[in-house]
Fold this sequence. Notes:
Number of strands: 7
Distance between the termini: 131 Å
Shape: elongated
Helix content: 40-55%
Strand content: 5-15%
Oligomer: single chain
Structural class: alpha/beta
Strand order of the largest sheet: 1-4-3-2-6-5-7
Largest sheet: 7 strands, mixed, barrel
Amino acid sequence: MKFSKEIRIGTLAIIAIALSIWGYKFLLGKNVLQRSNVFYIKYHYVDGLRESNPVQVNGFQVGTVQALDIDPNNLDTVIVTIDMRKDIPVPKGTIARLMAPSPLGTRVIVLEFGGECCAESGDYLKGETFGMVKSLLSPDDLTEYMQRLKIGIGAIVDTLKNSTLEGGNDPLAKTMKDITASMENLHQITNSLNVILANSSKSLQASFANLASITGNIKDNNAHISALLGRLDTISEQIQSADLGSSFENLSGNLGQTLDSLRLMIATTQATMASANGLLQGVNQGEGSLGLLAKDDQVYVEMQRTLRNLDLLLQDFRLNPKRYVNVSVFGKKQKIYEMPADDPAFMKDSIKH
């Protein structure tokens, strides 16, 4: 009986498809030509476990991982489906341990048989998860290694202690002594810093209280200074509107320059006051490094003397404005300035340390 060409081609195609399916399943670790049993295991953590990973008994592969799925009744649990050879009986008390025998992270399921025989296909097995160290070592070996490690650490500690107490030229003993001396020096330094800070805190607080008082006085006198500038502006405008001739042009220009200088001085003073207020707020909040000023008494004295001179300058400018601004509208000769007998500039310096 002869077969047509189309029948032969179809038969070859069916065989090729079947071989492809069988090869794909075989690569996944499942032999479709061999009968098997299916079991289910629940785990809470399956990192590194993949489909086709081996299922072993005493190091012998008896099956593969067929699928991994989330438990619909408990989203924190993963259901692992394993496919095992049908000729190997599985007791009902079998424990399926998820282990990592390799540092590369490859996971395998190792079955530990126990209990009555036998579990049926489709049953759930009890699952346990072992870490890498516990997977590589048995419980007895782990206990022995931990005991040896404890003994070794104890010997090292005893060696360090004996080297430190006995002294000698041992480099380890010298290192321990140097470390002890360094810690003692550090303790002394911290105690000294605490004493310095405690002694200088009162001086620092007094200095900033004085600075706050001075800036407050300047702020309170802003109204008087602004009124003085307003009066000078009025005088300048009256001189310009009077049209007294070219003889007063130079005087008006000089007066304008004087006013600009005074405005600049007031603006600088106000900016200084704002910076001082910000500095005080920062110091009250523990910011900055101005605490070093408390140790330098000369800086404090010079600061007090400078602020007193500024106060005398403002007072003299208020009491004797003719010393700084000479205005002659009708050409009247200016009187010669006479120094008062109680000039505060010549009073005894009241700065106290």
